[in-house]
């Protein structure tokens, strides 16, 4: 097998490495961040994602680090139940835990941290490090996230646009609050639309929460954690007491402010010896809850075709043909869910679950 470089050690890069390990294919990962530098947010993962994850992570270990959610409950902002739906194996886990679990099977010599990879303008299909040294590889698997610099440099005409939604995501450790709620996915909605607060219990003492803002009405700019907390308290002041107590008691040290972007049109998933996976191939908006599952499926499908095909270009083509239609469905569903989010609650349709299914 050819020499493989993986750029980015997020969910897609690390899951790719796990699949390559399974098939005893050699690779090296280059990651920009420091090893210990992990942002504080987390994920909602539908059943299909769990099926792919348990192919590469010990299920017992995985289930110890997160929790299955029983029901989705949609509330008004004051706490009146508007709708409920049973959930089928939807799992919640922190990003920190998932990255740690995915890193366990990767030996330290196969990953270099604090190494930013940049494209080389002069030589088609080649990548280099900021010190000018080339990355030596026959295949480059690019998993450098939704705002991929490498994708942008190769597809110069691509257009990214801001999505009419920003998200604040945080994790709070508080036994009392965690004890007071069930293992459900609770989501509170402003009557007029464009503002929600979601709560997911991760463990007996930890909760993941997120709020979604219509950014044409609520303008949150990059600001200090102190100001962000103040803003959150003002906006959610008259909401259900559970919401305001979570906002009040959270530490904002690792809070994540997500300014969401999408590609106007998807690019090809490959060019020359370079192939894109995860958000680098196809940024997905938050409403889909499909970013992690799609990253896992990309890695799985790409590995399968690399193993089965002698010709790299054929393997890349088959990977793209298998993955792109499903991604297009999630993009379409994501836009429908975004439009619904912007509407007053009494104009929502019956499909209440904020997860895209293919
Ligand atoms: C706040 C938030 C909440 C989310 N919630 C959910 C959810 O509930 N469910 C869900 O399924 N998805 C969710 N997502 C989406 C999900 O995080 C992504 O779809 C998923 O992580 C895809 O991972 P990735 O590896 O492709 O990209 P990323 O996780 O972005 O990883 C990219 C990696 O590449 C590294 N990198 C970047 N540039 C370079 C470079 N030039 N050289 C080397 N390394 C580089 C970065 O440091 C990073 O480690 C959420 C995302 C955010 C931001």
UniProtKB/TrEMBL annotation:
InterPro entries attached to this UniProt entry: FAD-bd, FAD-dep_Monooxygenase_BioMet, FAD/NAD-bd_sf
Keywords: Monooxygenase, Oxidoreductase
Record Gene3D superfamilies: FAD/NAD(P)-binding domain (3.50.50.60)
One Pfam family matching this protein: NAD_binding_8
Keyword Oxidoreductase applies: yes
Span of domain FAD-binding: 134-328
Keyword Cell membrane: no
GO molecular function: FAD binding; monooxygenase activity
PANTHER family reported in the protein's UniProt record: MONOOXYGENASE (PTHR13789), PUTATIVE (AFU_ORTHOLOGUE AFUA_6G14510)-RELATED (PTHR13789:SF309)
Name by which UniProt lists this protein: 2-polyprenyl-6-methoxyphenol hydroxylase
């Amino acid at each position: 097998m050819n020499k493989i470089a993986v750029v980015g050690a997020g969910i897609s890069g690390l899951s790719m490495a796990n699949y390559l390990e399974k098939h005893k294919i050699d690779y090296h990962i280059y990651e920009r961040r420091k090893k210990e530098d992990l942002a504080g947010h987390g994920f909602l993962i539908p059943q299909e994602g769990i099926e792919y994850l348990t192919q590469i992570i010990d299920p017992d270990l995985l289930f110890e680090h997160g929790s299955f959610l029983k029901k989705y409950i949609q509330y008004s902002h004051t706490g009146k139940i508007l709708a409920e739906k049973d959930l089928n194996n939807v799992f919640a886990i922190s990003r920190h835990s998932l990255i740690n679990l995915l890193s366990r099977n990767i030996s330290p010599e196969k990953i270099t941290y604090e190494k930013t990879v940049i494209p080389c303008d002069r030589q088609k299909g080649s990548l280099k490090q900021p010190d000018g040294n080339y990355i030596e590889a026959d295949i480059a698997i690019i998993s450098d996230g939704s705002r991929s610099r490498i994708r942008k440099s190769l597809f110069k005409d691509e257009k990214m646009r801001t999505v009419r939604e920003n998200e604040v995501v945080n994790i709070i450790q508080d036994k009392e609050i965690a004890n007071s709620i069930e293992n459900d996915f609770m989501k509170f909605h402003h009557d007029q639309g464009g503002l929600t607060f979601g709560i997911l219990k991760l463990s007996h003492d930890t909760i993941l929460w997120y709020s979604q803002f219509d950014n044409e009405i609520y303008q949150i700019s990059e600001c200090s954690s102190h100001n962000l907390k103040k803003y959150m308290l003002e906006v959610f002041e008259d909401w259900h007491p559970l919401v305001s107590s979570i906002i009040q008691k959270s530490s904002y040290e690792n809070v994540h402010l997500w300014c969401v972007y999408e590609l106007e049109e998807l690019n090809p998933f490959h060019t020359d010896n370079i192939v894109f996976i995860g958000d680098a191939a196809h940024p997905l908006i938050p409403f889909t809850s499909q970013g992690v599952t799609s990253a896992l499926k990309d890695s799985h499908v790409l590995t399968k075709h690399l193993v089965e095909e002698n010709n790299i270009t054929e393997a890349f083509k088959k990977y793209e043909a298998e993955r792109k239609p499903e991604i297009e469905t999630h993009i379409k569903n994501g836009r429908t869910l975004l439009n619904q989010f912007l509407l007053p609650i009494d104009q929502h349709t019956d499909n209440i679950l904020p997860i895209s299914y293919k």
